[in-house]
Amino acid sequence: MLKRRFDALVIGAGGAGLQAALRLARIPGVTVAVASKVFPTRSHTASAQGGINAALANVTADNWHWHMFDTVKGSDYLGDQDAIEFMCQLAPRVVIQLEHHGVPFSRLASGRIYQRPFGGQSQNFGGDQATRTCAAADRTGHALLHALYQQNLAARTNFFPEYFAIDLVRNPDGTVIGALLLEIATGELLLIEARVTLIATGGAGQLYRTTSTALTSTGDGLAMALRAGIPLEDMEFFQFHPTGIAGKGMLISEGVRGEGGYLINRDGERFMGRYAPHARDLASRDVVARAIATEVHNGRGCGPQRDHVLLKLDHLGAGLIAHRLPAIRDLTQTFLGLDPALSPIPVFPTCHYLMGGIPTNRFGQVVAPTCHGEEPVPGLYAAGECACVSVHGANRLGGNSLLDILVFGSAAADAMAEELAAHKTPQIIAPQALELALARINRWQKTGSGPSVAEIRNELQLLMEQHCGVFRSAVVLTQGIEHLDDLIKRLPGIVLRDQSQMYNMARIAALELDNLVEIARATLFAAFARQESRGAHTRIDYPARDDINWLKHTLYFRAGAQVEFKPVRLKPLTVEAFPPRVRTY
Questions:
Q1: CA 126, CA 417: separation in Å to the nearest integer?
Q2: What is the dotted CATH code of the domain comprising 239-353?
């Protein structure tokens, strides 16, 4: 197989990966490789619409401490407060850095960066609505991703686009020394050796049939960590964004409600006042998603099937919509054939974001439990949606995802640079280090009868939607685990097309399905273990939040499908902690 050697390997070319790569590539003498299964500017970061949070106070009074409070409260008090303080303090600096990179933020009349209101955000620790989310119209992620890619080109980062990461390469002493990749176009293997490796592969939204995430969001990095013996943290917390296009899943940004849009049921009622009297349509995402699901369940949904609600923004005027929400207008015209300046948009909750992931500290180091507590895994880092720092806890606030990937992409790069400086000699790859990765490929049938990858993947997505959706219970989760076990037994019988390049594409789809099955198992077992309702995890058999027994993180281990626990870090770095309290909006 082909072999290349670099100082640092970044797997994934979204915002977290490109931010880390740029920081490393600017260090004299450090060589950086970025491998991605899509061209970098097609990474899923490009779909982030609404904006990035930072307490700039360009529109209303604000400071990072209020931002921290909103993030802790939004997390339903499961977020680690040291990491949250770290992120919120750095937010203004990150946005200014983006501006210097060339991100074309929308502007106020004063020339300052435009900021819009977003859900779950407040002034003065729960007071009036804050205006904190910095936006480039409704294409913020797209603008950010292109700017970072251009800066990486200038820094001479080495790109390997359209390479699929099969698995990490790990020596017997546990040190991660790179990854085995598969070139999508040719099927040829490429081994990239690296002294430090960053997983920045994004989430796993393709677990669900109705999702706002790209087809590439198949949990690849998460599954690689599991196979390397690293547990996954808080996998029960999948966020269902309240306003996906009904029946399709594409996202209608929270920025629509930030600009003054609002939800109505079949009676024309602005129903959010009954669920969140103060914040109404700008309550936290889990609150709005449950409210919509409840309205539909109680027969107040819209349309012939009463299976959605309506998002009204026609009152905002065509001019404002064209200026502030152009991508939303394009989206609804393309996929629904309606103009939101004239007609309301049918919406329903859609799988959107994974709050859990690979456990890391605030320096981006992947940490694994030991008899001494937690210790970093040598040579391995993670950042972005695939990582769990945890700044989002049980529920992420809108506008914090872009902030998360940039803050902890930078932090990971800094820690990687320190490791590179401390260990200048690369490790020699042990003969057995590639065995796990090589065992994953070429194990499916090319001829004969059996299910296809698409057939099993569709069944998996339907299973997760029916058994691990917005509302859950022990009975429904147990049924889901049993169905998943039956599905896993059928995996070895999958038949792929034996047609040169088409066969290679089918093999990659099978590898992605392998990863999704691993993540589905982790999600179902973690959801079954958590016997309370907190944030995005709603158990109808345990409807209350239970801080006495469940103010802790779950850790799912692949071996034996075991779920263990670790405490939430309630102590911030420099300020007083925010103790758990009743969460209202």
A1: 39
A2: 3.90.700.10
Residue 51: closest CA among 180, 151, 139: 139
Mean pLDDT of the chain, nearest integer:
94
pLDDT tens, residue by residue, 95-131:
999 999 999 999 999 999 999 999 999 999 999 999 9
Report the helix count and the strand count for the chain, using DSSP H and E. 16, 22
Helical spans, DSSP H, in 112-219: 140-154
Catalytic entry in 170, 195, 209, 285: 285
CA distance 484 to 478: 10
Q: Could you state, in order of their start, the residue ranges of all structural domains in the chain?
A: 239-353
Q: Give the residue from 513, 506, 518 showing the smallest Cα distance to 445.
A: 506
To which H or E segment does residue 169 belong?
A: strand 163-170
81-101 and 140-154 are packed helices; what angle lies between their axes, rounded to 10 degrees? Answer: 70
pLDDT tens column, 326-370: 999 999 999 999 999 999 999 999 999 999 999 999 999 999 988
Kind plus residue range of the DSSP H or E element containing 402: helix 400-422
**β-strand pairing of 158-161 with 32-36:** parallel
CA 213 to chain centre: 9
Q: Measure Cα distances from 264 to 278, 280, 425 in Å.
A: 17, 12, 62
pLDDT at 21 over 90: yes
Task: Determine whether 285 is an active site residue.
Answer: yes
The three-state (H, E, C) secondary structure of 491-531, written as one string? HHHCECCCCHHHHHHHHHHHHHHHHHHHHHHHHHHHHHHCC
